Fold this sequence. Notes:
With 396 residues, this protein is an alpha/beta fold. It has helices at residues 16-27, 44-49, 63-66, 75-83, 86-94, 109-123, 141-157, 179-201, 211-218, 237-250, 256-262, 278-289, 323-334, 337-346, 384-387, and strands at 9-15, 36-41, 58-60, 96-104, 128-134, 161-165, 223-233, 265-272, 297-304, 311-321, 374-375, 378-379. The protein has 2 domains: 9-202, Rossmann fold (3-Layer(aba) Sandwich); 224-322, CATH 3.30.1330.20. 41% of the residues lie in helices and 20% in strands. The two termini are 41 Å apart.
Amino acid sequence: MTDTLPKNQVLVLGLGGAGGRVVETLSRLPEAAGIKLSVFDTDQNALERLTLPDDDCKVLCDNQWLLGQGTGGDTIKGQRAMTRESHRLQGLISQASLLIVVGGLGGGTATGGAGVISRLARSMGNTAVFLFELPFAFEGHGRVKAAEDGLRGLLALSDTVLGIPNDLLFSVLPSEVSFADAFKMADMELARATLGLIDILRPGNLLSSDLGDLVSVLKNRKSYAAIGVGCGKSSDVGEACTQALANLLDSPFLGGAAKLKDADAVIINLTGGENLTLSEVKRTLASAGSLPGLSARVMIGANIRQDLTGEVHLTAIAVKYDEREAAVQLSQDAKSPTRRRREKTTRSGEQPVQQMLPLTITSSGIFEGKTPTIIDGVNFDIPAFVRNQVPVDTGE
Ligand SMILES: Nc1nc2c(ncn2[C@@H]2O[C@H](COP(=O)(O)OP(=O)(O)OP(=O)(O)O)[C@@H](O)[C@H]2O)c(=O)[nH]1
Ligand SMILES: [Mg+2]
């Protein structure tokens, strides 16, 4: 595969089965032209079923050990598999000016692999923005729990995680919808949400919302996101903006005006062509910006894209903080670090929590540059605890 990208490239990386389907759907949307797409999965059949413009976009992870059979829901295997693709990932990430990672939480590949990508990106001075769906409740308690645990783990590593509950789709799904169609709809909504996110984060030339806004909204809080995009098409820019607002409120992953009203923080962005006037920007953002409740933090932005003519896109990300987690966080913050550590070790019957250290294989230490000792494909110059991703208690 080609690991070099032109500078200023937006990269959308799909992880696992759901990530692959979202990237495939995205590749069929004309607005995605110019975006670099890639899918990393451990499941050979799932990758083969994907139709992408270029087969080089698909990467089968850790074929040597997983034999293309997937992880069977094991997040440790997902983590290892992604770690073994570090070099390839680094090649891609190093040239991306904006990196968006998409997938579904609850399985092994994306849930286990996301943390590896977050660390890799961070170590390279890049930020990965995660747009991950959370399972439908009907997928069962085990999956929902695995996804919640995955979300919590990822939030500890990254300030830019948008976890979108699939159940939001029930506001628009007809009751007789098939399982497969529900996922197809999720594919499409996540693909559109990805484009909306790119609109928000792409540097603009008007009042631009950016990555800093997203970080400030999401940092240190467990949250759930609703994200919607409304498109308006008309040669009359005022009419296009009116349509975009109406369509935004109908978009399924947003959940209508009620979700905006209920949100703790909202980012709203309008993107249009060169005929977008300041008065329309003001009018549309004022209408959309008046929908969140008075206590919500609202951030707005607007971009011009030269390739958009007769078309505007209005994107909203509504973030709701998890109040239960916030309450736990507040009571933890009120205690001294020493007291917290003591409590952690003395609480009756509780096992010490093991933390995963960032064990991305980047160096062979003093063996760097020497001929590696490779036996059966394993590099024995890399310490065993690093190779095997052994969890190490950091004592925190
Ligand atoms: N949008 C969409 N979501 C899906 C699809 N299949 C599964 N999901 C969702 O994504 C979650 C994770 O499933 P997968 O993507 O299959 O898991 P994975 O990351 O490939 O992990 P393993 O297969 O266990 O290695 C599921 O719980 C579903 O909520 C799909 O075809 N489209
Ligand atoms: Mg899979």
